[in-house]
Structure formats: C-alpha cells, structure tokens
From TrEMBL:
Membrane topology term: Peripheral membrane protein
Keyword Transcription: no
NCBIfam families per record: Mop
Gene Ontology CC entries for this record: plasma membrane
Source taxon at top rank: Archaea
Protein name: Molybdenum-pterin-binding protein 2
Subcellular location: Cell membrane
A Gene Ontology biological process term: molybdate ion transport
InterPro entries on file: Mo/tungstate-bd_C_term_dom, Mop_domain, Transp-assoc_OB_typ1
Domain Mop as annotated: residue spans: 2-68
Record's keyword annotation contains Coiled coil: no
Length: 68
C-alpha cells in the first residue's frame, strides 16, 4: 500500500475492542523507523530543538489511521 503520509509505524494488532460508536485497536510496533513532525519555526526555536536531543513524539488519537 502506498500512502503520502510520512509518519507510519508498522506493527501487529494485539487487541480489538469494538464499541457502539468507536473501536479501540492496539498495535505492537515492531520497527519504529523514523517519525517526521512538521511544526512551526517558532515552536522549534522555543523548544530549542537540536540534533541529538531526546524527545517524545505524541500522536493525537484522532489523527491515527490504520491501514491493512
């Protein structure tokens, strides 16, 4: 499958819970690879981001798409 989305994590589904409106899908990520975050220049400067920094990538749950 080819997608234009850059932030892709491959994994295996470990749990599926289907509710009345939403479904919770848990993935075990096997190969994290590289995540690309597009943020404003102001935010990057305010955080003082530089190569080699330890950081955390936070992905909004409403923005995660499952592809099969």
């Amino acid at each position: 499958m080819e997608l234009s989305a850059r932030n892709q994590l491959n994994g295996k589904i470990t749990n599926v819970e289907i509710g009345a409106v939403m479904a919770s899908i848990k993935l075990e990520v096997t190969e994290p690879g590289i995540i690309t975050a597009m943020i404003t220049k102001e935010s990057a400067e305010k955080l003082g981001l530089t190569e080699g920094d330890d950081v955390t990538a936070i992905i909004k749950s409403t923005e995660v798409i499952i592809g099969k």
